[in-house]
Every structure is written in C-alpha cells, then in structure tokens.
Amino acid sequence: MNRLNPKPASFAHRFNDDETFDSICHSCFQTVAQSAHEPDLQSVENLHVCNPSIVEHYRELSKAVSDYREERSDVSEGILNRSGN
Ligand SMILES: [Zn+2]
C-alpha cells in the first residue's frame, strides 16, 4: 500500500443513547466525529487522516491474535492426531 496515498477510510456509525451518532474509523478505530445529525458526520470524515502509529498498533495486534490462533490450532491438531493413534 502506498503510504502517501492510502485507500480512503471507511466509517461505522453508532447511534448513542443520547440520540447522537458517533462515526468510528474502520482503520484506526478512533471516534472521529459525533453529531445529532448523521449526515453532518461526513464533512468530518472527509477530513479525517488516520494516525499511522495507531493503525500500525492495531495491525500488529491483529497479527498477534492471528498468530496465536494459528498456534492454538496447531496444538489442537496435535492433540487430535495423538488421540487418533
Ligand atoms: Zn482513522
């Protein structure tokens, strides 16, 4: 991925108990805007630039979780193979 021209961010909208909307970035998981009017979120979203260190943090976390799951599945397969013999 080109760091100078990353793909455009996408956002999830969460409706809050106080009848406002939060806009949450899918890349850095930060709440980038809050408004009582959902369409108003877009202007802030258009200006949002992810903090690269936060994006990197979640990328590494995701990789660690994925590696952990792979290790666990290797362990389970080992147990299954042993009990099968
Ligand atoms: Zn972001």
Number of strands: 3
Helix content: 40-55%
Bound molecules: zinc ion
How many separate domains make up the residues?
2
Q: Summarize the biggest pleated sheet.
A: 3 strands, antiparallel
Based on secondary structure, the structural category is alpha+beta
Distance between the ends: 47 Å
Count of helices? 2
Radius of gyration: 20 Å
Principal-axes shape call: elongated
Question: H/E element string?
Answer: EEEHH
**Oligomeric state of the chains present here:** single chain
The portion of residues forming beta strands comes to: 15-25%
Query: For the largest beta sheet, what order do the strands appear in spatially?
Result: 1-2-3
- The averaged pLDDT comes out at 88
The low-pLDDT segments are none
Q: What report would you give on this structure?
A:
This protein is an alpha+beta fold and 85 residues long. The chain has 2 domains: 10-50, no CATH class; 51-85. It contains 2 helices and 3 strands; from the N terminus they run βββαα. Strand 2 and strand 3 (31-35) form a beta hairpin. Bound molecules: zinc ion (ZN). Zinc ion binds at residues 9, 25, 27-28, 30, 48, 50.
